[in-house]
Design goal:
The structure is a homotetramer of 342-residue chains. The two termini of chain A are 36 Å apart. Helices cover 31% and strands 20% of the residues of chain A. With 342 residues, chain A is of the alpha/beta class. The first copy, chain A, contains eleven helices and 14 strands. Chain A has a seven-stranded parallel β-sheet. The first copy, chain A, has a seven-stranded mixed β-sheet with strand order 9-10-8-11-14-13-12. The longest helix of chain A is centred in the middle third of the chain and has 16 residues. Chains A, B, C, D: It is an enzyme of class 1 (oxidoreductase).
Chain lengths: 342, 342, 342, 342
């Protein structure tokens, strides 16, 4: 039976990606799209690539009749999201794509996001949305907190390895490369084509990137002790894609075995043959994760590389995957589209 | 009922795009993939972005059991295609993506492609694959000749206008901009990233591009007189997309009316509001065509701009659309995927 | 003897390009850099690529001691420029890079820029800055108005042809392709990497682009009658470069002869062998113009393609070239740097 | 007094970059350009961006009169270079840009390049071309071996730190990002625009990249013990630029102090304020190196990022810098061109 969907904050890239995915999803129907500043506009004027679809115009959130909505995706900016979700009907299923409910500890939220949380009771209720590791809880959840896109990429590498105890927890370095759509449609000088194309730079250096809050929370919980990784992202001249390079102390063969076993039955996570590494080109526009493992020339050191599409598997695709579970649909419904190459 | 499909020449971009589209097509199943030089290799080693699919390995054409094939796509190079198709079972449905059967006249083929045609009898049988204009013939055809990607783009603009008699046939200029995937996976210096990115140039200048053979054939047939347009393509630093700018003598309002009326019921062709023009960004990865019409400041002169994705609507998407018709399936099956933006 | 230079409006791309060029100019010394909103900042914080230079910090215009300045480049936005230049010392040599003094007729300015001109007396005094065609006047000028970058490209093709009377003045079509730096450092959605890369679109369609004001003024003056060309620019996913494709009624051989003769002694304008066309890749970062001429398959129709770097020859390089003349220096001083390829 | 220069192997990117740099060098004159396969062709047909220069046509090496040459740049492929240089006059000054003379130990050469060295006596004679660290030897050298472009980038970070003893030599990780021109003009599938743009991947993973041979040789010599770093490069969708991210065990403040002191008087190496990191955009087309140092949130761990232009400072610019020294010219002559941005 078709489920009615609302997308709150549909004028950004993750909102548009949700519409893209849902447009060919057999069981979901877009019943409402909101955008406060662009209320009244047709979606096709905000995103002409959706011109072929018959979509409701953008409206304000207070114009949505939530009684008719089965599930709402919330693709609003951080901080706005918590206020909006707090005001929604208490029994409405919600998948939030912001950072607002990723951290369970109000103090951690305040540390990384620099402000008090307006809905700490919802923080406690929210289930962390990394589907492959929270599947059961997500199926029964009312509120799911989508992960950070960088945070998702890193966890696909590290969670099974920390759990298996096969790497040195005090020697985890993650050098990450990401495309620009992860920064959203914000008008910033460094996101202009003239400033970004044909070059690269690091950003949020030295352990200051907010997704470290998620790493700290999740890895420490798995390990049963505090785990602090080193992490620096680099902005690349490409639109979609994240490539995480993990430099690890551990046996590469064992690492490969652990990851291969862990993901053998996962429909979206593919572990490559030992010694080969993946490319972001090969997951663009899709919900797939590719992971490769290599041994270093120094014995006992390993390199693990993971790639995914930040807008899809790292955000909106993950959100649809979680929505499928919450609505009792097969998890892969609407998400098996092949990557777009070239 | 699921139809069994063979893709001959699956190691190029149009072959891979066919696999991408068919991978989520509910009624088609890939039964054979051929690649003479790469026979024996798994498709995932030639195109790692297809890693998640359960596909047959590449084989040689002579290894395919065509008795079990309902339809073959032929994505081979020009000239190779005619020899291969000539040797296939005479009752096998074939959609050819090469240039070999686009020109009905052997002399025209020789003029534009510089060699004798090896299967002139098939030239006569083949139906030209511009779906929106040859729908009935394609439905009953055994052999359909996919159009050139540039030729398709230009015809979406000009066919209805020539038919309506609303433009000066001796004053048609088409300035075309195309992405690099149209040139295929060939190893040529000018297709290297270092040579192509961050710049542009014209090519096949002054009326020498082979797709003019298709324009001449089709436009002259519609007009009932010889029509010769001026046409120069430019290579752009982008992978997918064609933008055709037609500079026309005619009344812009009437042109808009004619195109709007012609495409009102077409599922894949969208005519924009008068005065606005489309972007290739908005059709990337999809089977859609967007067309915009503008009046020039000089009365009686008009500008029409059309965009499509060369690999999809300009080639493999068109091929699947035609295959759907030939197999009695709804025409849009498997082709309604939204464009990928950004 | 070294000349002291001020750059007013040094925080934009044309200002930075002036600094780049002057940094290796043997006879010019940067004595002042202004930027109202960024006054007090070191240039290296606004443009880190200039980090190696010993430059004055940005200041406000009213802080500059113009008594010590030999020539000022004015790289301010349109409309701001006329107010600023009006208030400068009346004997200060000025090269303006804005649109404010390109149009000699106040009515034309008002038509194309939508406002009254604040300094019509300076409009009359200003010399149009297309060096190769206004060399003598520029040498003696106090105020030179830099051309539009698109306008410059088009004029290198058309001025000699109109003067020679070898093309049909009522049949001039110019299809232009330009890189994004021409739009400046403005924060606009369509200039974001995610929106601009990997695609193209037309803009300012149908005869509405402001550089048409320059074309109309110049071409009509040369022809001694009103000349109105058709012109549509397209925005390309590249940072630097303009490629203008002119579709002309005229004899291609004669056109080639006229252009070759006209530019034979010009140090920066290179006419290619007949039948070949240029690439923007080959002028990137330089002050050179490359022009190619091709005959169409339709007799009497010709294609002329010209390329230049919009920031250099189309703007700041032209400005330095003009400044050299105004200061009695050899015209090519500091401008012979080879293009940067790849 | 003008020195006569020969460039052997002028049809590749480093050869063309040499021509670009020398074209505005006041004391060098290009007397011969060789290209075996393209002998007889004008340089402008191989590299149209050099069209404005008056250059000798390409010739074969055996056609060059070396008696009239003051210095030869050898930009030939690895292995070819050693055979060619061995056959040159024994007193001819040579700057080699290949890998052939970077490793002093024939066994090391054989290990990393998989073949016997044909001129081991020249290996012994050659001076390693990292100018800032071999200045005195280069000034008196007859044969200088240009460094690997990745190897140069890494050494600007690590040499002073190893020498100062301020980092853990067993915990050096270098995650490198490089543009595609470093791979040369080779026709390889993964270098095509369609395969490379809009994505990234690692290559030469796990300690297999040949530039490790240089790291091992140089770092072990400085440390007086064997030093083996971990190193993996990633190929980015950009043409020029290398960004090396070094993950180090050491005190970030001390590291900053050491690097700042070491490079205070170097004209081409700029150390940024503590806590900031550089971008490849800011060195494009130039001979500059920018280095930034950041402390990690984990005490005792530091991040150092260095950028340079692989074709210029990483190869041809370094070569000219060394040639200046060998010919008794001021070291910076012809190399102070500002980067090209945007």
């Amino acid at each position: 039976m078709t489920k009615n969907i609302a997308i709150l904050g549909a004028s950004g890239y993750t909102g548009a990606e949700l519409v893209r995915l849902i447009s060919t999803h057999p069981d979901l129907r877009i019943a409402a799209l909101t955008g406060e500043r662009k209320a009244g506009q047709p979606m096709a004027s905000v995103f002409p690539f959706l011109r072929h679809l018959d979509l409701p115009d953008l409206c304000r959130i207070d114009e949505v009749d939530f009684a008719k909505i089965d599930l709402a995706f919330c693709a609003l900016p951080h901080a706005t999201s918590q206020a909006v979700i707090k005001a929604l009907p208490g029994d409405l299923r919600v998948v939030d794509l912001s950072a607002d409910f990723r951290l369970r500890d109000p103090a951690a939220y305040e540390k990384w996001y620099g402000q008090h949380h307006a809905a700490p009771e919802l923080q406690a209720e929210a289930v962390y949305g990394l589907t492959e590791f929270y599947r059961a809880q997500i199926s029964g959840a009312r509120l799911v907190a989508g992960t950070g896109c960088n945070a998702a990429t890193g966890q696909y590498i590290l969670r099974p390895l920390i759990e298996a105890g096969c790497i040195d927890l005090d020697r985890i370095i993650m050098d990450l490369k990401c495309g620009v759509s992860g920064a959203g449609r914000a008008l910033k000088e460094n996101l202009l084509h003239a400033e970004l194309s044909e070059g690269t730079a690091a950003y949020a250096v030295g352990g200051t990137h907010r997704h470290l809050g998620e790493f700290d929370q999740e890895f420490s919980a798995i390990a049963g002790r505090e785990v602090r990784i080193q992490f620096t992202p680099h902005l690349l001249p490409m639109n979609r894609g994240i490539l995480a390079t993990a430099w690890l102390d551990g046996d590469a063969d064992r690492i490969h075995n652990v990851l291969q076993a862990r993901y053998a039955d996962e429909p979206f996570v593919k572990v490559l043959p030992f010694g080969t590494t993946p490319s972001t080109h090969d997951v663009r526009g899709s919900n797939f994760v590719h992971i490769g493992i290599v041994g270093d020339r120094i014995p006992g050191r390993a390199l693990v590389v993971a790639v995914l599409d930040n807008l899809c598997k790292g955000s909106s695709g993950q959100a649809v995957q979680n929505a499928n579970l919450m609505l009792g649909l097969p998890e892969t419904t609407g998400l098996m589209g092949a990557p777009v190459f070239p």
